[in-house]
Amino acid sequence: MSEPRWLNGPDQKAWRSYLTGSQLLTVQLDKELRARHGIGMAEYEILVRLSEHENRTMRMALLATDTTMSRSRLTHSVARMEKKGLLERFSIPEDGRGVNCQMTEAGWELLAATAPTHVGGVRDHLVDLLEPEEMESLGRVFGKVTAHMREIGEGPVETPPSDVAPTTSAN
User: Fold this and answer.
1) For 24-34, what is each residue's pLDDT tens digit?
2) DSSP 89-131
3) What domains are defined for the chain?
4) Measured between alpha carbons, how far is 47 from 51 in angstroms, rounded to an integer?
5) Which of 28, 131, 154, 166 has the fewest CB within 10 Å, making it most exposed?
6) What is the pTM of this model?
């Protein structure tokens, strides 16, 4: 077995800054959504992903992959959201095992109410801290990371952007 390629000082510093910063950012965005709207980042992301698909509907398996959640975690989250009237699940007639998840009108209204809070937090805690060139670099860097992870089997190759303003259409 070969010797690991250890991180040098600058690489280690950058890696730890990324880990700490991304975790703190996620916690803050989650806290803001919970305080103002009673949902967390995971639930928000489910609503966003559904809003980007026709009839605000997706197969549960694709939704799990798209949100990077395990199927079990997604099932529990969707069940909680279903009890709140935000989502509905139904069997896919042409596929005996498939289940679709669809956002209800109440889910759409919640997404429309929460989107400004989320986008405001992303701006306050990330976008407005960086120069435009730094945001472009960040996009390129994580575009490469995402493409690599998708290539090795971690989800769909293409995912739509998740921080766009909701539209009034069903997409």
Assistant:
1) 999 999 999 99
2) EEEETTEEEEEEEEE-HHHHHHHHHHHHHHHHHHHHHTGGGS-
3) 21-151 (1.10.10.10)
4) 6
5) 131
6) 0.83
